[in-house]
Amino acid sequence: MTPRVLHIDAGRTWRGGQQQALYLYQSMLNQGFATNICVSTASSFAEKLRNLNLPRFEIPFRNELDALSARKIAQIAKTYDYNILHCHCSHSLSIAVLSTLFNPIVKIVASRRVDFPVKLTFFNRRKYLNKRVAKIICISDAIRNVLLGCGFPDNRLATIRSGIDLSKFSNCDGSSVRNKFQGKIVIGTIAAFSGHKNYPLLIETAALLKDEPIAFVALGDGVLFEQMKKLAAEHSLNNFYFEGYRTNVGDYLKAFDIFTLVSKKEGLGTSLLDAMSVGLPVVATAVGGIPEAVRDGENGFLVAPDSPTELAELFRRLANDADLRRRFGARSLEIVKDFDINKTVEANICLYYEILNE
């Protein structure tokens, strides 16, 4: 049986998970599969799809148990004979499971992109372990292990790592961005300003290095953006640049000397993979799926998520050793080939066939 896949993303923001969903959706369209995507009408994802002039269904997705949206998804699946619903976020899964009350034939695949534990409460058992949920795709082995530890059955889980377009930033130029930082070594990060991204650790580390020729540059927005700017001001930092949300991410990556991601929790981190794709050395916390991409002493350094002193020392070491940065960066270019988006897409499509032909 050939997969006919309706993708669903009920999120409002544009982050790494939405980019992964778009990569998969576009590739399936290009390969001629019968596929479409349901997104929130008021979302950044919907706006992106409009700008790309891609087919889509825009649905209100008022809440996690929106019966009207669930019924609409069921109607779409029946009308176009979709046999798989691929849910790209947690709320999408809740609504897709609810939609099977109106269309019990369809099978569900859910992507799990965060390494937060899931308590198997009464509600969550009926959501994640529903008989219509054929597989939960974990984007790293770390996420799979977390779910196994929560009591999820092994046969419901599959690891398919996130992927990136390895040539996405090949034509970008960081020279104009780099001029802003006056010849300093640039340590950059791209991460939402949310609690688990651990910006206080990065700011505290920057405070330890504020008298050295190093600039810290953060791209991203989020609920903690103003709070972190205030924290930096309290440390009297003049070496930390809050750039906000940027569309020219590639220009910034080309301007960075070192990439960092200091999360408390991280499913994998596609911004980290993007950095590796332009040949950057990485300093990151040894949490979640990060060690599956960053190999300590090969293409970067791994640290505990609560050690600003150690983090500062590793930044200092790389900042002062151009040859080490080059060697780590060259290794990043090799390792990141394992995260080619084409491999991710192929693995997803193979899983669809497997589910339909069991």
Features:
358 residues, alpha/beta, Rossmann fold, 2 domains, 6-stranded parallel beta sheet, 14 helices, 40% helix
Unreliable sequence segments: none
Helices and strands: which structural class? alpha/beta
Distance between the termini: 10 Å
**Average pLDDT score:** 96
Strand count, sense and barrel status of the largest sheet are: 7 strands, parallel
**CA-atom Rg in angstroms:** 21 Å
- CATH structural architecture of the largest domain: 3-Layer(aba) Sandwich
- Overall domain count: 2
Q: Write down the CATH topology of the largest domain.
A: Rossmann fold
Order of helices and strands: EHEHEHEHEHEHEHEHEHEHEHEEHHH
Approximate shape: elongated
The CATH class assignment of the largest domain is: Alpha Beta
The total count of strands amounts to 13
